Amino acid sequence: MNGKDKRTEIRKLAKTDSRYHPDAFFLVCDGLEHAVTKLRKNVKYPADRHISGKELSSSIAELALDRWGYMTRIVLKRWGVEETLDFGEIVYLMIDNKLMSSQPGDTIQDFVDVFDFEDVFEKKFRIKPLEK
Questions:
Q1: Would you say which domain of life the source belongs to (predicted)?
Q2: Beta strands in the chain (DSSP E)
Q3: 31, part of any domain
Q4: Which of 91, 122, 89 is nearest to 29 (CA)?
Q5: CA separation, residue 90 to residues 65, 99, 114, 116, 127 (Å)
Q6: Which of 21, 28, 82, 112 is deepest in the core (most CB within 10 A)?
Q7: What is the count of structural domains for the chain?
């Protein structure tokens, strides 16, 4: 399935399920790509290495903070995402609809309480200085 077809299918899925905005699904996909890209930079990990629920959740948070900074929690809430389990719900909706894959042993429980949104997106948030 090409990228355009996948985006169309994700939009249909989001409309059918309606708990999450389509952009939340796209953020999860972008978070997965972000995690894979980071792993490829580390020579000790093979390119096809599995990404755990914890790693994916952390990657999504990092990417979201880069995009929206202190507004991240507000953006995610508007999209229906209020805890890391919501990332798992989105992942498993995509798995069930063959838009993402899993490995034996993966469960939605891998996404439960990975981190607290208030802590990561508000209390611990720091503005990064501009690079020169």
A1: Bacteria
A2: none
A3: yes
A4: 91
A5: 19, 11, 15, 18, 29
A6: 28
A7: 1
- Could you give phi then psi for residue 12, rounded to 5 degrees? -60, -45
* Structural domain harbouring 113: 3-123
**Are 65 and 72 within 8 A, CB to CB?**
yes
Residues 6+ apart with CB under 8 A from 8: none
Q: What is the pTM of this model?
A: 0.88
**Paired tokens of 108:** 């939605």
Structure tokens at 44: 């000790």
Buried b (16+ CB within 10 A) or exposed e, 39-50: beeeeeeeeeee
Please indicate, yes or no, if residue 52 is contained in any of the structural domains.
yes
Q: How far apart are CA 121 and CA 76, in angstroms?
A: 10
Residue 128 lies in a domain: no
